[in-house]
Amino acid sequence: MSFTGLQGNVSPMTTASATARPRPNAKQGRPTKGQPAKGQSAKGQSAKGQSAQGRSASGRPASTKRQAASKPPQGLRSTASTLALALAGLGLGLVVGIQWITRSSLSGEGALFIELSRWAALLGTYASLLVILLIARVPAIERGIGHDRMVAWHRRLGPLALILIAAHVVLVTTGYASSEAVTYLSESWSLISTYQWILPAAAGFILMMVAGLTSWRVARRRMSYETWWVTHLYLYLAIALAYMHQITLGQAFITHSWARWVWIGFYVITFGALIGYRVVRPVYLSLRHDLRVYSVERESADTVSVWISGRNVQNIGARGGQFFGWRFMTRDQWWQSHPYSLSAAPDPRYLRITVRDLGDHSSSLAKLKHGTRVVAEGPYGVFTADARKGDHVVLIAGGVGITPLRALLDDLPKKVRVDVLYRAPKPEALVLHDELDAIAKARPGTRVRYLVGTRRDYPISAKSLVHLVSDIAGADIYTCGPAELLASVRHAADVLGIPEERVHDEAFSFHSPDTYLPVSSRTKEKKR
Which helix (H) or strand (E) is 498 found in, with range? Predict the structure, then answer.
């Protein structure tokens, strides 16, 4: 195809001063948003980058000043990953040691099955505890390793844990059935009806299988995010239900108190971290900073921005590009937490998220009332300005994926040259384009290009990226959007020889509602 159209809509580089950001107030109104059409320049938005009603297009309250966060030491992510793997390996060594030291000599029919079942039980339970610990979101670990990598480990380890637990159930029942010369079903009933804690363990096994099957990609994409989230909680209950039968009936723990205390320690560490960092800490931060909904503003027909106010919000330590798990304390929403990225870097008084209507929860955000209590779990993610290696950054967004990139812009030093490539199917889908235009006019060395059309109109490849940004091979690339966009950018970067450490991305698919689109929405996406 011809690359004539790939220039998109360009916001020219300027050297104007930074714009002020008046206090967000619904009464002040929104600036007039003339959506740039395909092929039209963004030049022509207010010359000073500020709306007539008093709020700048960039959205920052004027009465506050943002404080820069300290930059973590280089190599932190690699060091944290190595330390985490070392600790996990130490735990695995303890598990193997428990089984090896406490093993008993068995002989006769079914002895081999019983021995193998014990190995499967200990290893499967340890893997299950690691699966939970990976999503306990311990700040020190999460900041060092990164949320995306931890979720990837969680997803890879989960199936192994399920297989080992299932193997334990089959092997132990088969072993005792063989030793007693009875059928498998007869032995199953005997175990459940004879031993006190086997029935709860059986219920836990069923719940674990349900949680595992609903996490399968095919099943996950056929259900709403809310349904998946609830069924995923079954994993916690399943492991808790299995606990007592291990401690009271496990051969390794009945006669060896030291092994029993090590096993109890594993549970205490795992569930202590889960409850502490997923429940206690978010509630404490919400109360300490008095987080509440300040206002809700319509950005487009299907997108809203929610402003959250609070005390000394900058002390939460959030950076542009990070996200929180948001829980709005209304009658219908208090029980569920949804991950949304910040769409503007935080300041002492405000946080902002910008959300597209993709389901029951995201559509209900437009109805939030002023003063609604907010519980924020986070911040999470290493998709921040600190990850860059040089002073030229290319930000590539797909649709509402512009939100963390918009926030990340606030944290980039003024000396950094920025190219923004924003792809959307139609002009109305260019969320926050007025703020991007204002930033391009106010910030030296910043260009914004709008690629309005289908994926076929604007493919992402090495050739097209070089056409849009001629010196992209020496830049850091930040990408946020659908998995297809991320894969295309990574492939293009590989072709161009851009080192992996300069390619940073944030997918919608990490526990995000965008993974759980209704069938009708998925059909529309495929047609684009």
Answer: none
